[in-house]
Automatic annotation (TrEMBL):
GO biological process: lipid metabolic process
Stored NCBIfam families: PRK09454.1
GO MF terms, alphabetically ordered: phosphoric diester hydrolase activity
Superkingdom assignment: Bacteria
CDD domains in alphabetical order: GDPD_EcUgpQ_like
InterPro entries: GP_PDE_dom, PLC-like_Pdiesterase_TIM-brl
Name of the protein in its database record: Membrane protein
Residue ranges occupied by any GP-PDE domain in the UniProt entry: 7-245
Amino acid sequence: MRTWPYPRVVAHRGGGKLAPENTLEAIDTGARLGLRMIEFDAKLSADDVVFLLHDDDVDRTSNGHGAAKAMKYAQIVQLDAGSWFDATFAGARMPMLEQVAARCKRHGLAANVEIKPCEGRDVDTGRIVAQESARLWSDAEPAPLLSSFSYAALEAARDAAPDLPRGMLYGEIPHDWHAQTAALACVSLHADHRKLTEALVAEIKDSGLRILAYTVNDPERARLLAHWGVDAICTDRIDIIGADFVE
Ligand code: G3P
Ligand code: MG
């Protein structure tokens, strides 16, 4: 079994559903509730600044409009990424990875950096996010865990920062998951929890991989997954599935 220094509960997009996703305010929220690890989505602006955003465009989670890959970070940072969620978060920004790393260190949070490329930018995003993560977390323990739904992005991340741990993310778990994760030298497989069965969990664990299941918001389901041997769950409900939930 590969080294796995990560806790059992990971806050999805920083602070789950309690704060605007992928903001410093979300990270603060997760930390305040005692979480010890967060997941967030990292991509590139038009001028190759790594920043946090889930979608390809900024519309759903800010007061701006349009594709993020066409905007320079100087434009992106002008946008309000908090008011859409709640007026109390007005003025929140889409932070740079550098700010996120500093905030994680300040709170003692481990990080799952999900590489989330804009369309057509898989290789550049994988390479640059991995290089930046290696630089920004150079003295961190545990190391940031890189993951992606994009095979090409994770391959580029492997080549750019081979020493950082990697997890392949799947919506549907493909028949060749074993070959893919082996080629990428992954430590973990990250799966939609609805696609996992007890038998499949056993098969994946027997291969030596760790498992992170997303997005688990039902405490009963979280308990069952832990019972099957799932190593970590990523959750929006950090209010009811806390840091010590399944330990
Ligand atoms: O990394 C787990 C989870 O975040 C993947 O789904 O769409 O929320 O990024 P998504
Ligand atoms: Mg994500």
